[in-house]
Amino acid sequence: MNLEFKRQSLAFAAASVLLFAQVAGAVSNTQERASVAPPAHPTVEQLSESQGQKVLLKGGVSEQVSPIAADGSKNEIPLGATVNMTMLASVNSEVTKPGDDVVAMVSIDMKDKDGKRILLPGQWCVHGMACQVEHQKRLGRDGFVTVHFDKLVSPDGKYQIPIDALATTHESTAKAVSKVVAKDSVIVTKGAAIGAVKSVQFTGIPLAVATHGYSVAAGAALGATIGLAVALHRKGKITCGLPGEELKFHFDKPVVLPAFNAEALPSAVPAAKIEDLDLLIADHKFLADPYDDKSSRLLRVTFRMINNSDREYSFTHLVIVSDHNKMYYPYVLSMDSLKQRQETVKANCWGEATITFGVDSPKRKYWLVLLDSTDRAELTRVPIN
After folding, report:
1. What pLDDT score does 137 carry?
2. What's the half-sphere exposure (Cβ side, CA atoms, 13 Å) at 136?
3. How far is CA 205 from the centre of its chain?
4. Which domains are seen in the chain, by residue range?
5. How far apart are CA 89 and CA 361, in angstroms?
6. How far apart are the C-alpha atoms of 151 and 127, rounded to whole Å?
7. Which one of 111, 151, 193, 300 has the largest count of C-beta atoms within 10 Å of its C-beta?
8. Whether the predicted model's global pTM rises above the 0.90 cut
9. Can you list the residues of the chain whose pLDDT is less than 70?
């Protein structure tokens, strides 16, 4: 009895010691865990420093050079200055009405007379409203559109600058009149010359000699009269700018704008280049426009694409870009060009083709450009002329 009691007492004591040890261990572990702080999330500063950026604000804004000068300095576009603008919405002197919205892109950087400061950055967009529209008129007077521009917007839309600019496609009165006089004098002179020749043809040389040349003079006078009538009824040009086309605007008053940081503008961005892919121009030739448009040309380009990369590229995504950032596509009536455009150059292969594009003046500079097939971003370019 005493032996059994002792055995139970020892078992109870051992169980108690074991239970106490477990409880003590649990408490100890709990206290140890409580004394260790949870791992902290990396701060904005740490993340940015690890990515090589300098934090300016706690919100995570990284340092980026502003295209607008921080010192608040200003530049002035002088009265009469000319700027090339690529239209993003149609403008037509016969259709546009006062109050219509006008949206355009500045084609290239507009610089001061010394070429050092950028007064108006290329590839920035301007918004305004037509405030005066004149149709084409007799005596060769061209139609024109005057626009009040009120906003200048950066390509990414982050910067919007209020502006007060009055610009027009109308040339100065003196220049326009001189052009009309020059054209009309040519028409009248040609009419007189043709009249004189016709007089000799119809009346003969003997009559011209017998009348001491009066018959020829009469014919010339008649021809000049006809030429003058043509000049009087001749209408000027219609000012028309479709999306993607370029118009020249003249500023009707000085425009004050913030100074710009040249290194932060689109023109300072280096051209894209793909490693292991080369475009080589073998030949190019400007051809007359088939519709006798004096302001347009066809540009036939023979080139070779050497693809040492691990992906394939298609001639379909080739375009031409001018020094005014205008994009041109293959001439749609050239069947050979359209057929060759469908060709692809596989990885570690090369291909060549001759494609004809519709472009503007041969005085412009042009590049052959390969675009990405998905987002149309520029991948690489090579100069043509």
Report:
1. 62
2. 14
3. 62
4. 74-169+239-264 (2.40.128.260), 174-233 (no CATH), 270-383 (2.60.40.1240)
5. 22
6. 5
7. 300
8. no
9. 1-63, 137-141, 171-239
The string of pLDDT tens digits covering residues 13-67 is 544 544 444 444 444 444 444 444 444 444 434 433 443 344 444 444 445 789 9
Which residue type, as a one-letter code, is found at position 230? V
Amino acid letter for position 268: A
Q: What is the pLDDT of residue 28?
A: 44
What confidence tens digit (pLDDT) does each residue in 180-215 have? 344 344 434 444 444 444 444 444 444 444 444 444
* Secondary structure of residue 340 in the 3-state scheme: helix
Query: For residues 49, 52, 56 and 59, what is the CA-based torsion angle, rounded to 10 degrees?
Result: -70
For residue 370, the SS3 value is: strand
Q: What is the pLDDT of residue 105?
A: 93
Predicted local confidence at residue 187, as pLDDT: 38
pLDDT at 3: 47
Q: Determine the 3-state secondary structure of 187 from DSSP.
A: helix
Q: Pairing state of beta strands 91-92 and 240-241? A: antiparallel
Structural tokens at position 131 = 């405030």
How far apart CA 189 and CA 122 sit, in angstroms, is: 44
176 contact partners, CB below 8 Å, separation of at least 6? 141, 142, 170
Predicted local confidence at residue 239, as pLDDT: 67
| Residue reference for tokens 């009559």 | 207
Structure tokens at 147: 């626009």
Q: Residues in the chain, how many?
A: 385
Using CA atoms, how far apart are residues 58 and 26, in angstroms rounded to an integer? Answer: 42
- Which residues pair with residue 313 across a beta bridge? 345
3-state secondary structure of 119: strand
pLDDT at 134: 85
**Residue at 322: amino acid letter:** S
How large is the angle between the packed helices 173-210 and 214-233, nearest 10 degrees? 150
Cα separation, 34 vs 1, in Å, equals: 49
> What are phi and psi for residue 19, nearest 5 degrees?
-65, -40
Q: For residue 292, give every residue at least 6 positions away whose Cβ sits within 8 Å of its Cβ, in sequence order, or none.
A: none
Closest CA to 319 of 365, 372, 369: 369
- 280: helix, coil or strand? strand
Residue 28 to residue 200: CA distance in whole angstroms: 128
Q: Report yes or no: 180 and 171 within 8 Å, Cβ to Cβ.
A: no
Cα 97 from chain centroid (whole Å) = 26
